[in-house]
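Reminder to self: tokens first, then the designed residues, so the page reads top to bottom the way the pipeline ran.
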């Protein structure tokens, strides 16, 4: 509210009333530690990330979300181009004949496939599926385009949407019926090349989570039971939500082996003139990443955005008091935002005069802006600005002359602090167990459990069955690449047979 205007007392009283009313409209009614589900729903709406849509499980992604997605997309797209992966686009629709060709694969997706059965009032002669993922859409054409070893490797990626219809509890970002993602589909002449790429892509996914979203993840391999349907093996980055005690499959990089090549006859003539089958990979990450970020960093005031992905990294707010030189304050705010923008920061100033500074503080805190800069009469007099961090509310006065350097340092510090705090919380939830009793005890305390396992699918299914309850069963999340030493004679926590490896277990989204 611009200050320093003479007003009669009744107008002042009215204005005060209006202001207070506005300020009570902000703030969350649910607390993160008390009712996580309610809190999450409130945060994604109040933080202007999504709007609910009139079809269950579908959400409108608002500009605040799209700008975060674009930052990640900018990073990932540039990195895969360095690997000589090319972008393309395939249609959204799949013919049933092609979809059913790869039996294991389609069985894995069958309940989630949405079908188009009508055109206007007429029934379609043959229903058409909407892609849940694009292996079966793309691979008939790979068999057409790949003839000889000179056509390899074929490395394509598409940025698109997919539709997966079947589930009971839609959750914005985490579990929605339509979502945005990238999906890479590559074909090689040798398994070695395919294996190498799987891990290179997985490392890029680790970067997205740890270096952009400030979320610690575990790199590992999925069990046979949990791997991608129709693939040879699946690697993933796994995140963890301490508040709910649930793991989240953050992104996956699959080696498909030669299964799809067999089905779709993707053959080539090798250098010796012999007929051979290609080795394939597919890999993807989606807008689910944004939901994980909200869950990990958000607090009772709303979103907390890591500076690297925030649409607005610095918000400048004028704080004019009565009798202050309001115009001068506004000028300096404008100049400050301009200086920061020209120095490469995503900065804006909030000049709305129908809201008080206090209301604006709450509003931008709710939206998770990493750094707030306040400028009032005292700051003008001292040629400084007041900077307030979103992550820990720490305040610091910055001289105008060193504004750019200090803002740069502050944002870097916020980014690192968010990661450190998230890692500390996650690590405090990891529990190593060796017996079934320890396992069930840890599970009841929402832990991320690391246990020795015999690597048998029947045992894994048995664990799932024995832990089935109202809040979902426990399952394997991944076997970490970084394996702790497995002492001789160590037994599987669930079967008592000799353990083959350490594996993370828990409930998951």
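Designed residues (509 positions):
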């Amino acid at each position: 509210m611009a200050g320093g205007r003479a007003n009669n007392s009744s107008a002042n009283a009215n204005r005060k009333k209006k202001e207070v009313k506005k300020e009570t409209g902000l703030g969350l009614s649910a607390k993160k530690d008390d009712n996580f589900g309610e809190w999450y729903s409130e945060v994604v709406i109040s933080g202007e990330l999504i709007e609910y849509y009139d079809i269950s499980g579908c959400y409108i992604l608002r500009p605040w979300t799209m700008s975060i997605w674009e930052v990640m997309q900018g990073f990932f797209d540039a990195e895969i181009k360095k690997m000589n992966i090319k972008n393309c686009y395939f249609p959204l629709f799949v013919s049933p004949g092609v979809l059913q060709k790869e039996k294991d694969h389609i069985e894995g997706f069958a309940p989630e496939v949405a079908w188009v059965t009508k055109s206007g009032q007429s029934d379609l002669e043959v229903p058409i599926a909407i892609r849940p993922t694009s292996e079966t859409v793309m691979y008939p054409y790979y068999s057409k385009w790949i003839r000889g070893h000179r056509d390899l490797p074929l490395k394509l990626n598409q940025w698109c949407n997919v539709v997966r219809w079947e589930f009971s509890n839609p959750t914005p970002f985490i579990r929605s019926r339509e979502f945005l993602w990238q999906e890479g589909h590559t074909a090689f002449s040798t398994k070695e090349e395919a294996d190498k790429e799987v891990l290179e892509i997985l490392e890029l996914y680790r970067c997205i989570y740890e270096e952009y979203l400030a979320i610690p993840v575990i790199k590992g391999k999925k069990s046979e039971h949990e791997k991608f349907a129709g693939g040879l093996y699946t690697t993933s980055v796994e995140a963890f939500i301490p508040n709910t005690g649930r793991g989240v499959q953050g992104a996956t990089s699959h080696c498909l082996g030669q299964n799809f090549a067999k089905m779709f006859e993707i053959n080539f003539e090798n250098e010796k003139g012999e007929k051979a089958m290609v080795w394939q990979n597919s890999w993807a990450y989606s807008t689910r990443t944004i939901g994980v970020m909200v869950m990990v960093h958000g607090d009772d005031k709303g979103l907390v955005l890591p500076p690297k992905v925030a649409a607005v990294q610095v918000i400048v707010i004028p704080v004019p008091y009565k009798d202050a030189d309001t115009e001068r304050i506004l000028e300096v705010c404008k100049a400050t935002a301009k200086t920061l923008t020209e120095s490469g920061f995503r900065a804006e100033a909030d000049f709305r005069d129908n809201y008080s500074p206090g209301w604006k503080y709450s509003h931008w805190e709710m939206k998770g802006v990493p750094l707030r800069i306040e400028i009032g009469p005292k700051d003008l007099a001292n040629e400084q600005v007041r900077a307030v961090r979103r992550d820990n509310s720490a305040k610091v006065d910055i001289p105008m002359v060193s504004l750019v350097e200090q803002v740069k340092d502050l944002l870097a510090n916020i980014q690192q602090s968010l990661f450190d705090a998230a890692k500390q919380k996650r690590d405090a939830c990891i529990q190593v167990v060796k017996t079934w009793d320890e396992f069930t005890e840890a599970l009841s305390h929402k832990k991320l459990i690391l246990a020795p396992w015999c690597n048998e699918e029947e045992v894994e299914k048995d664990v799932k069955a024995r832990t089935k309850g109202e809040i979902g069963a426990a399952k394997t999340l991944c076997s970490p690449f970084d394996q702790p030493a497995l002492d001789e004679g160590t037994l599987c926590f669930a079967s008592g047979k000799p353990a083959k490896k350490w594996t993370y277990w828990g409930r998951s989204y």
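The CA atoms of residues 477 and 505 lie 5 Å apart.
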